[in-house]
User: Fold this.
Amino acid sequence: MTGAVHVQRWTAFADHPDAGNPAGVVVGDALPDDATMLRVAAEVGYSETAFLAPVDGADGTWDVRYVSPGGEVPFCGHATIASGVALREADPGLARALLRTRRVGEVALDLGEVDGAPLATLTSPPAHGTPLADDDLRALLGLFGLGRGDLDDTLPLEVAHAGADHPVLPLAARATLAAMDYRFDDLRDLCAARGWTTVALVHRAGAATWHARNAFPVGGVVEDPATGAAAAALGGLLRRHGLLPDDGRVIVHQGDDMGRPSRLLVDATGSGGVRVSGTAVRIPT
Assistant:
């Protein structure tokens, strides 16, 4: 199917193959050409496939590109977590790796174990955000069939960034999140025009507990079951607005409404990048 390119299939932010967010991982001596990466990503069919190649003269550093069936994206959290676990599987002594992206700088990965399972922790690019424009808010509400009364008006409305841009719509009711639906083609066009990677709909269940769903039409898929980049962006948003719990850590539950439960551990202490941790397991082929 993919010629000489060997694709590993992993699912991230989960401890069994039927949960989490699947990602392709390709580790080679050199990165394939653009056309090959796009073809492979489309054939794999996951929301992203990460392509990695070692950087000459920089031990522990890899060039990485993230490609969805719809095209390249600047940063992808779940494929980064899957890549980290894949690298550690190939080299069990590997404790740290550095991924060199094309557009958002370097992403550090700390690698270890938790309860006997492999654990990867990424540190995102620096987190920042901008207010969500009123016109964009109206457009998003219309595309999702929502009204302003569906929003949690105690939370900010932002386009949050921690490697990629994600408008964040905070919903007052968990049931509204569970019923998420949207006009795929129209949202894809809006996201492409604005440079948004996903649209994150979130619900605050408690100071340290959040539920999320992420629409990803620009990637050619309806929804991501786990979105590490959006979780990092959410962590940055919470930090900016003083909404973190005392220890600066939250857990994001995602994928439950898709039947692929995922757990993303977010640590937004300090400044700069946000740390997102998760396990990953191979998908049998």
